[in-house]
Specification:
By secondary structure, the protein is of the alpha+beta class. The protein contains 15 helices and 13 strands. Strands 6, 7, 8, 9, 10, 11, 12 and 13 form an eight-stranded mixed sheet that branches. Strand 1 and strand 2 form a beta hairpin. Helix 8 packs antiparallel against helix 9. The termini are far apart.
Length: 449
């Protein structure tokens, strides 16, 4: 290296833009050669050593005691990596390094370990800020874990030094990919409800309270169905099903808050009618999917859907190193119970009175009253409705034909006139033998006679 006094990038540019550039409290960036001699350090003035005939002044081991065990020669073969060093007080410092073989230099970036998470957030936030101004400073962010994010961000800083324009273009592309990746794991709709513009602005404890409609959907008897599948077949089946019904949620301005195995929990901020229309189209999509399954010689499936409208709180829960968006509300529990009741009443879609009464044009839907039921976790009975608008045509015809008798029988049942109620329910059963709700009320009426 003796006699070389210029490189591809002027030293004052590196010193100004990268050595002094920090985004984390306590962060220090510096350059050494392969011997560990300091080429550039923000707190060390570099002077030409006339005896050595170079500008190297101090060795990395002389900066602080914690760097004494740092041997740059051992790092050369690694290319890049992450180390931890500590002082006598056991304060741990993260050291990220990158070998630059073209000029036989090593670029180091160090910062206290306890600021790692903050560094991640600030680097990502800075990336988005620079993206808006077309001034990206780093080009790659891996989201597997916090350490990988920092390593990738650091490597990108090196890439910018070497290939500035190419790095900008690549950074822009990868930043867009990052936004897309985050939105798939954390619904942007959820952030919008919290009034948050970007994932990097999320803080633990952010929350908002408002009225929304909650939809639960679950595949009936899926446990039994999956017993004949391998783990891979199970995942393929669930994803195939979700790929069909999921878009029906977003079509009606809803968003999926959680996937719970084969179940879906979706939220509809605008209107309960959106949730109902979404559920009806999901049932229609299911019929087409069952044709597909039947043609393949596979078992058809049935689903149950429950919908309830009420006050709920959306927010960010967890701890500083692990957060997620969640919904805390009795409305969520009730929607889940509505879905569970579909098995008991033989319905595809059950909605609460609180949801149905908010629908302006109820007459456009086929539905019938199912009565008052006690659900787990609630002291008061809940009024529910069988909304069968998305059922098979034959089912719709039979339920509409018997609706008046069924609801009159229900009225008698809750008036404790069990004899008359039972007679009417039997009349309904004769016209619609597969009506499980009727079977249930006949059984309960007989129990009281």
């Amino acid at each position: 290296m003796t006699g070389i006094w210029s490189i591809d990038v002027p030293l004052h540019t590196i010193h100004g833009e990268y050595i002094l550039e920090t985004s984390t409290p306590g962060q220090t960036n510096f350059l050494t050669n392969y011997e560990g001699d300091i080429i550039m350090h923000p707190s060390i003035s570099i002077e030409i050593d006339k005896e050595k005939g170079s500008f190297f002044q101090k060795n990395v081991s002389e900066i602080e005691a914690k760097y004494q065990k740092l041997n740059p020669k051992e790092l050369i073969s690694q290319g890049q990596g992450v180390l931890e060093v500590s002082n006598q007080q056991n304060n741990v410092t993260i050291v990220i390094y990158q070998i630059i073989p073209e000029i036989e230099w090593i670029l180091f970036s160090t910062f206290p370990k306890d600021t790692m998470i903050k560094a991640v957030n600030e680097k990502i936030a800075k990336a988005f800020k620079h993206m808006k101004n077309d001034e990206l400073q780093f080009i790659d962010i891996e989201v597997n874990n916090e350490m990988q994010v920092l390593v990738s961000s650091y490597n990108d800083m090196v890439e910018v030094v070497k290939h500035h324009q190419e790095a900008k273009e690549k950074a822009h592309e990868l930043s867009l990919q990052l936004v897309d990746s985050y939105s798939r794991f954390f619904p942007t709709n959820f952030l919008e409800q919290l009034g948050i513009g970007s994932i990097v602005d999320v803080k633990l404890g952010d929350n908002i309270n408002r009225v929304m409609t909650v939809l639960f959907s679950d595949i009936r008897a899926f446990t039994n169905l999956s017993e004949d599948m391998s783990p891979q077949e199970t995942f393929n089946f669930i994803n195939s099903y979700l790929n069909r019904v999921g878009p029906k949620v977003t079509k009606f301005n809803g968003f999926i808050d959680k996937y719970i195995g084969d179940a879906i929990m979706a939220l509809y901020p605008d209107s309960p009618q959106n949730a109902i229309d979404s559920a009806i189209e999901m049932l229609g999509e299911l019929r087409e999917y069952n044709v597909y399954l039947d043609n393949k010689g596979e078992h058809k499936i049935a689903i149950g859907l429950g919908i309830h409208t009420g006050n709920l709180t959306l927010g960010i829960v967890g701890e500083s190193n692990s957060m997620e968006g969640t919904v805390i509300s009795d409305a969520v529990n009730l929607a889940s119970r509505m879905e569970g009741l579909t098995k008991i009443f033989g319905a595809s879609l059950i909605v609460s009175r609180q949801t149905l009464e908010k629908i302006a044009e109820k007459e456009k839907y086929y539905y019938r009253y199912l009565g008052r039921v006690k659900v787990k976790g609630k002291k008061e009975a809940v009024e529910i409705y069988d909304l069968f608008h998305g059922d098979e045509e034959e089912t719709i015809e039979k339920k509409m034909e018997t609706k008046l008798d069924f609801e009159k029988a229900l009225h008698l049942y809750f008036q404790k006139d069990f004899v008359e109620a039972c007679e009417l329910f039997r009349r309904v059963k004769k016209k619609n033998p597969s009506d499980l709700a009727t079977h249930r009320y006949i059984k309960h009426s007989l129990a009281h006679i």
